[in-house]
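re: ur msg from earlier - yeah i can do the LQZAQKY5 complex, just paste it... oh wait u already did. ok heres what im feeding in:
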Amino acid sequence: MSQDTLAYEDALRIVLAASRALPAETCAMSACLGRVLATPIVSAMDLPPFDNSAMDGFALRGDALIHAGTELDIEGEQAAGDGLTQARGGAWEIMTGARLPDGLDRVIPVEQTERLSPTRIRLLADVAAAQNVRHAGSDVARATTVIRAGTTLAPQHLMLLASLGMAEVSVAQRPRVAVLCTGRELVDDPAQALAPGQIRNSNGPFLAARLPLAGAEVVHVETVGDDAQAFAAALQRALAAGARLIISSGAVSMGRYDFVPQALERIGAQTLFHKVAIRPGKPLLFARLPGDALLFGLPGNPIAVAVGLRFFVEPALRVMLGLPAETPLRMPLFNAYSKKPRLRFHLKSRLRIDGEGRLAIEVLDGQESYRIRPLADANAWAIVPAEIDALAPGSLVDVYGPGHLEFPIPSENFA
Ligand SMILES: Nc1nc2c(c(=O)[nH]1)N[C@H]1C(S)=C(S)[C@@H](COP(=O)(O)OP(=O)(O)OC[C@H]3O[C@@H](n4cnc5c(N)ncnc54)[C@H](O)[C@@H]3O)O[C@H]1N2
Ligand code: MOO
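and the outut:
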């Protein structure tokens, strides 16, 4: 390994140190799905807001257990939505969710009663105090923290926010990101026929699709030829569009047209590292641009782009969003695996379940960084550290989901 090739852990440390948490902004409840909460949600009210019935039945009161066989007059009716009602005993016909009339303390379900006349019932079961009553504040008490800062808001959080009547929340600003694909072989327009030597741009659509799932906002996407000047001009357009993070693909390796390092030097960027002891994606470059935007120069091979995004850009996005470092899952390996020493491998993998519902991780065939078909079959990444050369089936490996906000979803059974 050449001296300027960093271990992944050292490179990651540099990425994390260069990344800054973004300030919070206010977001309407209707638009906050998937955003990261910046300030904890503290309930300003009780949930339920009032004592109410868990059953359709009759609300009663008593100082002790009311015994089966007791007969009571029906004094009134309370349906969901009915407001304040004062009761002085007797039986009140009540519906599920209806506010318990003041003065009553328990509910007997209608099927445990016998109707003696239109105005009188007999109880067919004992009724204890508080039975079938959902008390005010029993789910959420006023002034308690109900959603922690750093939570990625999902529909179940919106259920809670809606119940609390919250119109807006404070969320971390989304990192604004630009995607620049380099290479004069690239064709963006699907309607354009490929000339000899040309290929379609697949990194651009991949990055533009993955970044929003990772919590970022894509503000600029551009394809540029193999030309340092054109690249520098595209960088300026990306910055003008508000990007604070720029992801480029290609032109960071050893070829004659691998101009990204020189272009960065020319605009006065500070290269923080170039080349990491990983596969794929070894020639990955990380720089700070004048004005403090960050640039990840991802190697052009499509799987190097996917790995660069998942294991370098996404950890930076987590810092910007105020999220802690990820903890990988530990999973038994389904198949044996061996690799080249001294490089950390990021493997296209599939989380699978066996007949008993046990999880295992299968390293897929076709790990070369130009092969995109296995990525389409993958639902996870397995990591084999630099110092390990071979693993037997059943060995535990670190597993990451397809994106830092996504849990890997196991695919069909082995059999
Ligand atoms: N002499 C050496 N050659 C290479 C080395 C090396 O160490 N010494 N490293 C190899 C590795 S590893 C990688 S990864 C690549 C990275 O190269 P670049 O970042 O300079 O990328 P390009 O040469 O521009 O492209 C590589 C490959 O990817 C295709 N590509 C590029 N952009 C796209 C896109 N937007 N969509 C689809 N495919 C794309 C491009 O056509 C090339 O096939 O260098 C190795 N070489
Ligand atoms: O690191 Mo490169 O991505 O192996 O092909």
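cool cool. The chain has four domains: 8-22+174-321, 25-42+145-172, 52-134, 329-413. ping me if u need the other ligands too
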